[in-house]
Predict the structure.
Amino acid sequence: MMDATQPPICPTLRPLRIGRVEIGFPVVQAALSGYSDWAMRMIARRLGASYASCEVMLDQFLVQVRQRQRTRHFFHLSDDDHPVGGQLMGAEPEQFAAGAQRLVAAGFDVIDINFGCPVKKVLGKCRGGFHLSQPAVALDVIRRTRDTVPDPIPVTVKLRCGIDDSPASRDKFFEILTGAFQLGVAAVTIHGRTVKQRYAGPSRWAFLREVKQLFPHQVVLGSGDLFTAEDCLRMVAQTGVDGVAVARGAIGNPWIFAQALDLARGQPPRKPTLAQQREVLSEHYRLSEQLYGASRCGPLMRKFGIKYAAQHPCHLEVRAAFIRVRQRSDWDAVLDRWYG
């Protein structure tokens, strides 16, 4: 990966298109388990994200769930929340297809298959990144999903660069990737670490460059170590990928999308003032309260407050204040004290 001390490179960014879905600016928000609900997506969109994905959903959950108050947030979309991707994770090809049908019925514009999650309990149930160890099953999942989803709706796949660093793992990765494109997958997002690495060590951007060189006419998005706007444009410049999907780097920092737009226009990225941060934090809570209701919203927003605190000059004190949030009045008190 390029030395972070080097000046950012501002490549000419081509508008992103996934199948028939026009995306536009190719810096998008990735699916984030436990985070990328409707409220987070709306904040990201208002700050420049042209596309966003929902929290990953299990196929079993999608097949069995009924629309109830406690689960409706998973399916909540609005007119200004498009284009939006629905991400699906599971073990059995048949249930994958049935889960994809639920996401289509809910109104998602793109169906994304998760073959990248490295969490131990997920792998233990043969989900997520585990599929990179079994190409035949992985391709059966893709085939059944693509056959089930209506033709106008693109199917995409999220991958890591293998289970581990072994030659056998590399071969399985490329068998899945090649087969996926042959089966009609419209785009792939590749995180430049193995499943075994989880989030340790640097993301291997050189691997992303190799993939894009091997598949120059396919849509490839990169992911991994995207924590600043400079990182986003640098990945495109170094690897030639068609776009980048910002994951952890967008939690508590939705300004990364606006800053990437600044850089793409040849302007220095603008850092949000405390007043601008306060406005976004207040709006995020309002949207979350609209989604979950007043009684559930406070505890759920703590994790966002903790992440937002990193943007504040007194981040440790602000973080401690957000940890104590239980309800709207607590949130507003933190804003009055630290963002006044």
